[in-house]
Write a structure and sequence with these properties.
By secondary structure, this protein is an alpha/beta fold. 43% of the residues lie in helices and 13% in strands. The chain folds into 2 domains: 1-58, no CATH class; 108-379, Divalent-metal-dependent TIM barrel enzymes (TIM Barrel, Alpha-Beta Barrel). The chain has 14 helices and 10 strands. Helix 7 packs parallel to helix 8 and helix 9 (220-237) packs across helix 10. The longest helix has 20 residues, at 60-79.
Length: 381
């Protein structure tokens, strides 16, 4: 494995800590060496005391669990690759259809666009008022030019929301991927969206992709990095960025509470919040936070969208997981119901499904329950 020289003065403590954490999550040999002697391993990698301090407190068991979770996520993504149809080349003789306007009712009820679900939802597409597309599907070597044509075609038939997985907004080198940012901006313009969402996390270290999102150290240095990244990303993509709270299979820790961190990023950059209630429930089940305390802290006026999904909550001490392959739970729907009066700026509530596509009837049931729950609130607005 090729590593950059982390003892150089050009690497900040945070950037160096990110690089070593990436090695621990992606390389079994690094994990074994670190588990055997955490302090010695970190000292051998980092000359900076601040960078070492960020790492030596991480419990080896949590790192091992997070690495196993990433492996499962990676295998799951390969098994259920839900790529939309192949790119469609634009015809110079065909007129461009106008984008479908968003209905005025709020919040809209939507579903993550997954081709394997379309059969189960066929005949019930009136339940899906907005389709959330994964931006990364449409990015290619041409920085999303052909993908923009395809996405615009979708947006001419139904309202579209745009969700990213790989901006890595917490990475010190987030802004170095110029082609990705250019492509996302092109997709946003093609789809006619006013915001693009991604996770308040890191999804790559340097050029190395991580199979799952890694939450951030909740420190002032990390906060400064995120604020600088969000400010520049919004400028480059030309629309507002909306940040999602991730599930935390590993909690790097820090002196700032999770949603207080998110509040501060939103306050100082104008970005919005994508509130994932299932991630919040998973984090509470795994002892990472208290959901009620965090929600009381969150500025709900900043919430632009919401994600609902179904995770797994095994017995016997195994951690809960944000698997997105189960029905939306009653506790999540009750949580949503309690928040509705304060979600004054929420544009859409999206049901996510990333597995067990043969049980598409469960997604249909999720959408029907969501319509029943939101009907009174939407009628009052």
């Amino acid at each position: 494995m090729v590593r950059r020289d982390l003892t150089s003065t050009s690497a900040t403590p945070l950037a160096a800590a990110h690089e070593v954490l990436g090695d621990l999550l992606l390389d079994e040999g690094a994990r074994r060496a670190w588990t055997a002697d955490p302090d010695g391993y970190v000292r051998s990698r980092l000359a900076d005391v601040a960078g070492r301090t960020m790492l030596v407190g991480l419990p080896p068991g949590e790192v091992e669990q997070a690495a196993e979770h990433m492996i499962r996520k990676s295998e799951g993504h390969k098994a259920c690759e839900s790529r939309p149809p192949q790119h469609v080349e634009p015809s110079p003789t065909r007129s461009v259809r106008p984008l479908t306007p968003w209905p005025s009712i709020r919040p809209l009820i939507g579903c993550g666009f997954r081709p394997p679900l379309l059969g189960a939802l066929f005949g019930h597409l009136d339940l899906v008022e907005v389709w959330e597309h994964t931006a990364d599907w449409y990015l290619g070597d041409d920085a999303g030019r052909r993908g923009a044509t395809e996405l615009r075609s979708f947006a001419s038939t139904a309202p579209v929301a745009l969700h990213c997985l790989t901006l890595s907004i917490g990475s010190p080198d987030c802004l170095s991927d110029v082609d990705r940012l250019e492509g996302v901006g092109r997709l946003a313009a093609a789809a006619g969206v006013d915001h693009v969402s991604d996770h308040l996390a890191i999804s790559r270290v340097g050029s190395r992709p991580l199979p799952h999102f890694v939450p951030l150290w909740r420190t002032e240095e990390q906060l400064d990095v995120v604020i600088a990244n969000v400010t520049e990303v919004q400028e480059r993509i030309g629309v507002r960025l909306v940040l999602e709270n991730p599930a935390m299979m590993l909690d790097p820790g820090g002196e700032i509470a999770t949603f207080a961190f998110l509040n501060e990023v939103s306050r100082r950059t104008g970005c919005g919040v994508l509130l994932d209630l299932e991630n919040l429930r998973v984090n509470e089940a795994n002892g990472r936070l208290d959901a009620g305390t965090e929600l009381a802290e969150l500025d709900l006026a900043a919430v632009v969208g919401m994600h609902l999904a179904g995770g797994t909550f095994p017995e016997g001490g195994e951690p809960a997981g944000d698997t997105h392959d189960q029905p939306v739970s009653d506790p999540v729907l009750r949580m949503l119901e309690s928040l509705l009066p304060d979600l004054s700026n929420c544009k859409h509530v999206i049901v996510e499904r990333d597995g067990r596509f043969d049980e598409g009837s469960e997604v249909l049931d999720d959408l029907q329950r969501l319509h029943a729950l939101l009907r009174p609130a939407r009628g009052a607005r």
